[in-house]
Amino acid sequence: MxxxxxxxxxxxxAGKGTQARMLEExxxxxxxxxxxxxxxxxxxxxxxxxxxxxxxxxxGLVSDEIVLAILQxxxxxxxxxxxxxxxxxxxxxxxxAALDQLLAGIGGRVGAAISLDVDDAAxxxxxxxxxxxxxxxxxxxxxxxxxxKAGTCDKCxxxxxxxxxxxxxxxxxxxxxxxxxxxxxLIAHYDALGLLSRVDAMQDIAAVARDLERIVxxxxxxx
Length: 223
Ligand code: AP5
Ligand code: MG
Fold this sequence. Notes:
alpha/beta; 3-stranded antiparallel beta sheet; binds BIS(adenosine)-5'-pentaphosphate; binds magnesium ion
């Protein structure tokens, strides 16, 4: 594979999806969100989706086995060869090891792992105020990212929006706990490999995007 693999690490609400979509537009890297893939599987009622549904609604992590199967299938598609931003994957040490193995098999490697650093306390508000355009998938927020015209998506003109089933205060707290217990240790893992960068993701969306832009440009230049 010719492209870079960039990992975005961060708890719920850190801005992984928001920033991955912006990087996708600017760098042609493909956003691979395991959360989006799992939500699509739940909606389609596949066996993986049926198994994942209750775990996601409770704010826990879906089994490595299910997540790896879904990611592996997606990574086999040709568009990923130009490079990808992993949004919400890996989330456990097992997933990180499996990613290395998967990439070794296709001649790829992780170019950068970027931790979006935030305060937990602010994340409940970010997640609870979030909604998504049903037409194009663009993410919006009641306070932090409003469309120009209320009720109409700037991107596609759509007027239907959805809110995620797991975006309530109790579930967000569970997701934050899962992040600290199982995913945050990956920050030290990628640091030890010399692949880690950290970004202050308490800044506004544009400032975070500028910091990420610089890191991704350096990674791509060094590839
Ligand atoms: P997933 O969909 O990955 O959810 P998450 O990690 O909890 O993260 P979020 O999508 O909630 O937040 P985000 O960081 O993308 O923030 P966003 O950009 O939307 O996973 C969902 C579930 O699936 C998991 O709980 C788990 O069960 C399962 N799962 C997924 N992957 C898995 C895996 N690998 N292994 C096991 N299980 C897995 O931003 C949030 C809001 O804030 C938006 O409205 C945005 O507009 C706003 N915002 C963004 N940045 C800023 C900023 N800088 N300032 C102000 N507002 C901002
Ligand atoms: Mg997300």
